[in-house]
Amino acid sequence: MISTSVRAGVCIRNMAGLASFSLLRFLFQTRVANNEEAVAKAAAANADSEAPTLFDKIIAKEIPSSIVYEDESVLAFRDINPQAPVHVLVIPKFRDGLSQLGKAEERHEKILGQLLYAAKIVAEKEGILEGFRVVINNGLGACQSVYHLHLHVLGGRQLKWPPG
């Protein structure tokens, strides 16, 4: 007997409870990867918009988040779809036209440095200073899904190379 459960828009088939966790995780990740591409395409269509993003709403505390670090320029919070035991997003509080790294200008030099330093602080707070990765997805080809520059701080397990 095959039963289907739907959670967060993802359909997973469980054959009489015999499907292993690894198989379910693989199916979920495959589905999520395909959805991420679709979300990235939709987001890219509005990439140059100055409309508030999901991150602007998190900064304004209109949407709850699990904040790891905050100062006057930067906010760091846990990713809702973690790809590692530690997966924190680090964002500038003021977008200032910095929707993606490819749009960076000389005037953004200070905030770019602050973002990297904040990533180091996050790694320290999370206990992963000895091994972590900082990732920036830039544009559609990299599956950027929110056009508000952000760094992914990943760690807490052995990371593979090359990634993705």
From TrEMBL:
A molecular function (GO) term: adenylylsulfatase activity
Q: What are the transmembrane regions? A: none
Short sequence motif Histidine triad motif: positions: 148-152
One Pfam match, given by its short name, reads HIT
**InterPro entries reported for this sequence:** Histidine_triad_CS, Histidine_triad_HIT, HIT-like, HIT-like_sf
Q: Where is the HIT domain?
A: 54-164
Q: Which residues form the signal peptide?
A: none
Catalytic residues of the enzyme: 150
Q: Tell me what this protein is called.
A: 14 kDa zinc-binding protein
